[in-house]
Write a structure and sequence with these properties.
With 549 residues, the chain is α/β, with parallel strands linked by helices. It has 2 domains: 176 residues, Serine Threonine Protein Phosphatase 5, Tetratricopeptide repeat; 276 residues, Spore Coat Polysaccharide Biosynthesis Protein SpsA, Chain A, CATH 3.90.550. 55% of the residues lie in helices and 11% in strands. The protein is built from 24 helices and 10 strands. Strands 1, 2, 3, 4, 5, 6, 7, 8, 9 and 10 form a 10-stranded mixed β-sheet that branches. Strand 2, helix 15 and strand 3 form a beta-alpha-beta unit. The longest helix is centred in the last third of the chain and has 19 residues. The chain is globular, with a radius of gyration of 27 Å. It starts with 21 loop residues before the first helix and ends in a 5-residue tail after the last helix. 48% of the residues are buried. About 2% of the residues have low confidence.
């Protein structure tokens, strides 16, 4: 269990400052942090650098979440005076940034100067929670409560630690006390999710954590709490209860049934169009295009590239490749329209009975298109199929989750490892799933049109549109399958920054929650992530490849 809560670690009040100006403190108390910052900055300019002026600025910067600035200002303040408040402020920021050892050391330095400060002891306890050290967290929070029995932050910290340590009844009593106090109710509710799961009240845990996800869509901790509760429910001995819970939800079904068996390659003469939206990243895009042209065989009809407002370098490269290979057709959008609209332009251009949508940061493997097409035609109910990959969440051939339970990002392996991965995933099974990852899909055109296709209005940027299409296809009675013998490598976000990806992912989740409810959507997602047949494929691949590259 991860021990962190919804909110960030609070900066301790360590010694409410005798140095802090009355006007700055008053502005903060009135909920006007920018006014406080203006006053503190004015004092710094007029009076020059001193511990008093710098600590005042740093404290306001920390309140505003300007952590890089606050860290720098606290360090400058420490040149003038070794003060508990400065060490505490700096240590709290370092803990938030993940530099846990240095952050704890700074907090310990503050404690040496103010050994009876309960808020500081509580902050150190929280820092140890970030290190997943529940024993130390409990020790420091207990010391804080001994000094100040009314310190609810320390009580919250100790409740988390007790729950992690298996002191269920102690945690239960402390959570009840926190509810009575009204302190940080939603953080306490988040902690209650894990308590309910410990008590085998899985349905309540999932409903509560899903509600927190809807209210705090940017909170990783609410999402991770849901995943922990779902995993505990799925792995409990009461499988009938688990399946009954899923049956009661909308758009949600258990995908642990025996997988289908893929058929041999079809010699029906059917050819397929591939739609690839492109926005810059010329070298990555070139590599992706070349892999498709080299490895798609006679099944490829056209590679329809939608140049979605790329710069001159990328556009010129695309036109040059189109001149060299007649299978390439380039559609140009002078202004960027967004991923989903670009895809839909390509689909509108396609004339094949089924089409592929693929990202421009992928590398396909030999026979990939034949494998996907054979899978699509293996059963009349199958309307959409997708491959496995290094970066495809639940369709990853390696670990789905990282150490802290977020989706793992795995780099494209070197060539020798690629061959071993492909060998490990071979077997021809089609794993039915309620949802497919959108980095590479093959879709039946009739089924696609019947459900209305992609929703570019709600999901314009390429996040959430395939999940939404998957759910609508499933609700219409179609099957979706992961093709375990097909591997397409995925660089993941070559044309977009990490920060932008995070923002788009959060926005997509909000919209999916609004359309299907967080409870429904997150259960669908976890059904995919915890599919036992894909788990067996991962075990087979891991026997060939150690996932440490």
């Amino acid at each position: 269990m991860n021990l962190r809560g919804i909110a960030a670690i609070d900066e301790p009040s360590a010694q409410p400052s005798e140095h802090e100006g009355d006007a700055v403190a008053a502005a903060l108390a009135d909920g006007k942090p920018y006014v406080a910052l203006a006053i503190a900055a004015r004092d710094l300019k007029e009076q020059g650098e001193s511990y008093k002026t710098l600590s005042s600025v740093a404290k306001v910067e920390a309140v505003l979440g300007h952590n890089i600035r606050a860290k720098r200002t606290w360090k400058r303040a420490l040149h003038f005076k070794h003060d508990a408040q400065a060490y505490a402020g700096l240590g709290s920021i370092l803990v938030l940034e993940g530099d846990l050892d240095t952050g704890v050391a700074m907090l310990q330095s503050a404690l040496a100067l103010a050994p009876q400060d309960a808020s500081l002891l509580s902050a150190i306890g929280l820092a140890y929670l970030y290190r997943d050290d529940a024993v130390s967290a409990r020790r420091y929070s207990s010391r804080a409560l001994y000094i100040d029995p009314a310190n609810n932050e320390a009580l919250l910290c100790r409740a988390r630690a007790d729950l992690f340590l298996g002191h269920i009844h102690l945690a239960q009593a402390q959570i009840a006390a926190l509810f009575r106090s009204g302190y940080k109710i939603d953080e306490v509710r988040l902690l209650q999710v894990d308590l309910l799961a410990h008590l085998d009240e899985f349905e309540s845990a999932l409903v509560l954590s899903a509600d927190l996800c809807e209210r705090y869509p940017a909170s990783d901790e609410a999402l991770l709490a849901f995943r922990r509760a779902f995993r505990a429910f799925q792995r409990s001995e009461d499988t009938d209860r688990y399946r009954s819970f899923l049956d009661a939800l909308s758009h949600c079904w258990d995908s642990s049934a025996v997988p289908l068996v893929n058929t041999s390659p079809l010699d029906d003469g059917q050819r397929l169009d591939i739609v690839m939206p492109v926005h810059n990243a010329p070298e990555t895009t070139r590599n992706s295009i070349e892999s498709i042209l080299q490895r798609s065989g006679n099944r490829l009809s056209r590679l329809i590239i939608v140049d979605d407002g790329s710069g001159a370098e990328t556009h010129d490269m695309l036109m040059e490749m189109a001149v060299r290979d007649g299978r390439i057709e380039v559609l140009r959008c002078e202004q960027r329209s967004g991923y989903t609209k670009a895809v839909m332009q390509g689909i509108a251009r396609s004339t094949s009975a089924a089409f592929v949508v693929i990202n421009s940061d992928t590398l396909v493997t030999w026979d990939w298109l034949e494998s996907l097409y054979s899978a699509l035609k293996s059963d009349p109910k199958v309307a959409m199929v997708g491959p496995l990959s290094n970066n495809a969440a639940w369709q990853s051939y390696g670990p789905v989750f990282s150490e802290h339970d977020g989706f793992r990002v795995t780099p494209i392996p070197d060539q020798p490892l690629r061959e071993a991965i492909i060998a490990g995933s071979a077997g021809g099974a089609l794993v039915p799933l309620p949802m497919l990852h959108g980095f590479c899909i093959l879709v039946d055109r009739v089924a696609y049109d019947a459900v209305g296709g992609f929703d570019s209005t709600t999901f314009p940027e390429g996040y959430g549109e395939t999940q939404d299409l998957s759910i609508r296809l499933g609700s219409a009675g179609h099957r979706l399958c992961a093709v375990t013998e097909c591997v397409v490598f995925h660089e993941h976000g070559a044309s977009i920054s990490i920060q932008r990806r995070g923002t788009l992912s959060r926005i997509a989740r909000e919209k999916l929650y609004a359309r299907y409810s967080a409870l429904n959507y997150l259960c669908i997602e976890m059904i995919c992530c915890e599919n036992p047949h894909l788990g067996a494929v991962r075990n087979a691949v891991s026997a060939e490849v150690p996932f440490k590259y």
